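Second attempt. The first submission of NAD(P)H-quinone oxidoreductase subunit 5, chloroplastic had a stray character pasted in from the spreadsheet, which I only caught after the job came back as garbage. Lesson logged: always re-copy from the clean sequence file. Corrected sequence (745 aa) follows.
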Amino acid sequence: MPVELSNQYACFIPLCPLVASRLTGSLSFFLPKATRSLRRLCAAFNTFSLTTATSVSSALPRQQAATHSIQQYLWARIPKSDFRLKIGFPIDPLTLVMSILVTTAGISVMVYSDSYMCHDQGYARFYAYLSLFTASMLGLVFSPNLIQIYVFRELVGMCSYLLIGFWFARSSAANACQKAFVTNRIGDFGLLLGVSGVYWITGSFEIFELCDRFSELNSNGVINPILANTIAPLLFSGPVAKSAQFPLHVWLPDAMEGPTPISAPIHAATMVAAGIFLVVRIFSLTSVLPPTMHTISRVGGVTTLSGATLALAQKDLKRGLAYSTMSQLGYMVPASGIGASRPALFHLITHAYSKASSFLGSGSVIHSMEKVVGYSPTRSQNMFLMGGLRKHMPITGTTFPSGTLSLCGIPPLSCFWSKDQIIAESWLRSPYLGLTTSITAGPTASYTSRIYLLTFEGNFRANQMNYVSFNTSSPSENIITSWGGAPPESLATQASNNVTSAADMERSEVAETANLVTPPPSEGGPICEKAIQNYSERNLLHPQESNFRMVLPLIVLAIPTAFAGLAGVDPMQKGTGLNLLFDWLISIPSLPEANTYLENLTEILTSSIPSLSLSLIGLLISFKIYGQTNKLVDTKFLGKFKLINKNLLNTLVSLIRDWSVNRGYIDYYYNTYFVGGINFTSKLVLYFDQWIIDGFINGTGVSSLSGGEGIRRGKNGRISHYPFGLVIGIILPVSVVDFPIPPLP
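This time the job returned cleanly.
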């Protein structure tokens, strides 16, 4: 097949899921009854369409590698005007790599969703949204100008709104999708201002053209540096919102209200990847502006560390993974800010597969937990009600660690190689940023291993709650028996040691969930017999392994999660930029010389010892605290810190827990100052409108009505009254007004 012809087929990559989404949506809208009977056929059609797009995107890299050129296919949208806009699609390494990432992750989610969403009434609607979501991201990837990028970004935002609020009857889901929509509109408004400013300076929307022209004008001193460093951060405000960077990250944890399958594309290959993609795409523009690059790197550094600390004490399984996404995205943004766009994109790819594997694994757990503890997210997603699931869900329990250990940065899993490159580049360019990225490796390993240990190791805790009446048991007994295993020492004895604050905190979390799974007592005191019978039947259940359609994507995603990072090791220590990443993609089947490859691996492992040591320390701490088979928290481990002031340790643990549980208090300040300020201003405007504007209009109307009413009553038809009124009207002004008397001559 000719190279030119094969590249022209790239237009089918976004068109296939777009056509499938439109047909499924139209069928659901016009023929809802027929759609319900053909819903599995609709799902198969959407899956087949994305499979076709995946096949085309997988075939293009080797065809494009024959020329090693960047090709664009453009059509003039407004040809007869001074303003000319060309739409089309480019073919370059970045586009092809991102298209493979989006399609492969999307096809895994679609196969997975066939089983996860099969009992939902909105089954066909979900597939229509998911195909449109994938088509929007692919359209964004294949955009050659900023206008197309902006349009498809808005489509991505609209699809995220629809999918996060898919179960819109639930108030938390409705609020979450509105929060995501409004937060992203803030970033997109800044992006719109930045796009307008770039066009005003360069006179072009074409990315390659405007980047070259901007660099040329900046090098010649034509552009005002203040203006340039104002417009470039406005362009960056779009990725800040889409990629959940501080301070516009608040929508990401609440996005977990949507169905679990959609969390994988949102956090892996579509929503958050859109921001990083734009940063890499306009890297040639921002790289000539050092103040903008410093801003990007500092925002990413703050996001990296804050996301890791916020995930340390989360009890919701999906929310913990959400903060992990925020932290890992924080690695990519500062890498772009220091000029390391290649490691940033490399980490985007490795993180996408690792996080997709983790989220689909969590969905498998939640799907099984719902049959045991109910369908409320506060129960089915609560890690304190899980435990020991590796015995009951062996495939999920085997594939899930690959994602968590990869996120920890443990070799030879994929995220280790990309994260290590970012840390190395950070130390070379900025010691403070290098210190931040290195320190973050410790908390990252701690919270990711904590998620695995609480979920898959130990004993299953949801069916070990004591159903003793509240009138016959103390709260402490309920707390102790609720975290599994044989009852340990009493709380009074443990409290005397002054080192059990962390354990008490974790137990208090379980105590809060005890009421969610323990049947309530009747008014007379003893527990209702029917509640005991129903609870006992449920108490005998354990989560079971998901079916083949759900575990197959987990097995497939475990392969790139484990080995994709090895393709990023440059054996010859040569090549820079995105072309090297593209060479990785097309050279995966052919291994280089073994000696050179192993030497480079050894060098990378040696240079990564400091960050790897912090990761291992985080793993060790998490394992010692949560890795016991019969306890939720190991209190003896905390008692070993005899050299540390106990009150100081308790205070530190309490601060970390409060910081994480309260989301860093950022939502509180937003609600207090921004939301409260907007509400207060709205009330002032409402009062001004009611009492000033409406008051003036209503007062004028009332006075006219009163005057007319008075005149109507005065006009009674008696002629004698008219002369009387005329005389009064003449005499009254004369008597009131003091007319001056002219002087005598």
